[in-house]
Amino acid sequence: MVLIRNRSEPKRWQLDWETILHFVLYLLFLSLSVYYLEGLFGRLMIGYHKPTPKKLPTLPLRFNENGQFKILQVADMHYANGAVTRCEDVLPSEFPSCSDLNTSAFLTRMIQSEKPDFIVFTGDNIYGPDSADAADSMDAAFAPAIKSKLPWAAVLGNHDQESTMTRDELMLYLSVMDYSISKVNPLSDNPSDRQRFTVDGFGNYNIEVKGALGSELENKSVFNLYFLDSGDKSTVPGIGGYGWIKESQQAWLRDVSALLQDAYKRGRATESDPAPALAFFHIPLLEVRYLGGSEIVGEMQEGVGCASINSGVLSTFVSTGDIKAAFTGHDHVNDFCGKFEGIWLCYGGGFGYHAYGKAGWSRRARVIMATLEKGEKTWQGVTSIKTWKRLDDTAFTKIDEQTLWSKI
Q1: Model pLDDT, residue 376
Q2: Is the pLDDT score of 76 beyond 80?
Q3: pLDDT at 7 > cutoff 50
Q4: Are 264 and 271 in contact (CB under 8 A)?
């Protein structure tokens, strides 16, 4: 309430209703303006969705007391708007009650059953064209992983950025989500080296996995994970189709691999082999087209959706000497692994229910297990890497178990 002084009566005060009305209208206008501006610009701000301190996972990642490290790969969730988003390519009996929530339930089931140490999401985490808000969709898509409090990381696919966020905004958002150890891009601590570490795309980074506690390798990375942004569409005039991993990304990968190998071998006179490594990205390499028949483990049910040019990524993988396998998504009804030039190229298999699939062909996820060598007194380096898939069927069927690499 506003009071004004009556100048004809110096010691008395009276209400000026016109002033009060103007003051109320001003407050109303101010409130509506703030609300409108927040709605207009707020979603461009990473902190728009309840900015709270990030909850951090237990780090560093390391092998457990049983000498094992298990990774869950989730490919192509295609999450949109939750319960109102209908499923694609399911049986008629499943369709009425099927939505994005089935994808969430499958992820929860995989986490509870397989008990992974780490979760990797290999792109098309959300389906941009159907997502009303990218941040809301990502919050819902990754909610089961966050609820589990497990460390997780993600790369982008070709559909993530087709909603309300750009690729750089998406990776920044992913990097600040609870329990995420995703990174936007690598940067050296030395300002003079920053140009060398500037790479194309968003979401190029590496994660180290240390040896078991109490072992002589507890402070060394015995297992390395590389994450790469394979882009969305070609940006080169005259070249159509999907994007690819650029030379700057490959140069970064070669540099990081060399540094990690040097650190692993330092002080280990008897160790000549590098610590094994895996690569994760969304769009498969062109060489996957050359696989087929008896060469593969799993099913090939559609053409390989890859770039129209060969940017030499597989040659880079071979040259590093540490990468044993690469894991992608993108083609939802391909779930096979095939070996080319000594490196396994594996699909995760379609995971999400709002992604296209094949009615009656269960959604699926891939599991990767690395195991340490048991020495006379302590755990040593990695001795094998195996993989298998789980189907989201009644029996939670385990299929296509295979060894990707063995030290012996």
Answers
A1: 86
A2: yes
A3: no
A4: yes
Please choose, from the candidates 341, 356, 241, 366, the residue with its C-alpha nearest in 3D space to the C-alpha of residue 288. 341
CB 336 within 8 A of CB 69: no
Nearest to 47 by CA among 163, 155, 135, 157: 135
Please give the helix or strand (H or E) that residue 36 lies within, else none.
Answer: helix 17-41
State the DSSP string of 191-218. Answer: GGGTTTT--SSS--EEEEEEPPTTSTTT
Provide the pairing of β-strand 337-340 with 296-297: antiparallel
Task: Supply the angle between the helices 313-320 and 247-265 in degrees, to the nearest 10.
Answer: 10
More confident residue, 2 or 99: 99
At 377, the amino acid letter reads K
Q: Where are the beta strands (DSSP E) in 244-363?
A: 277-280, 296-297, 323-328, 337-340, 343-347
Average of pLDDT values for 107-120?
Answer: 98
> In this structure, how many other beta carbons lie within 10 angstroms of the beta carbon of residue 286?
17
In the prediction, which pLDDT does 47 show?
43
φ, ψ of residue 110 in degrees (nearest 5): -65, -45
136's CB contacts (< 8 A; 6+ apart) are 49, 81
Residue corresponding to tokens 């407050």: 27
* pLDDT at res. 246: 96
What is the dihedral sign for C-alpha 208, 212, 213, 214? negative
120-147 confidence digits (pLDDT tens):
999 999 999 999 999 999 999 999 999 9
Q: What is the pLDDT of residues 380-396, one digit of tens each?
A: 999 999 999 999 999 99
Tokens of 249: 């990304």
- 330 closest CA partner among 96, 155, 138: 155
Count Cβ atoms within 10 A of the Cβ of residue 25 and give its class: 0-12 exposed, 13-18 middle, 19 or more buried: exposed
**How far is the C-alpha of 335 from the C-alpha of 302, rounded, in Å?**
10
Buried b / exposed e across 63-101, counting CB within 10 Å, b at 16+? beeebebbbbbbbbbbbbbbeebebbbbeeeeeeebbbb
End-to-end CA distance of the chain: 84
Secondary structure letter of residue 359 according to DSSP: T
- Which residues are CB-contacts of 274 (< 8 A; sequence separation ≥ 6)? 257, 260, 261, 264, 265, 320, 321, 322
Adjacent-strand bridge partners of 26: none
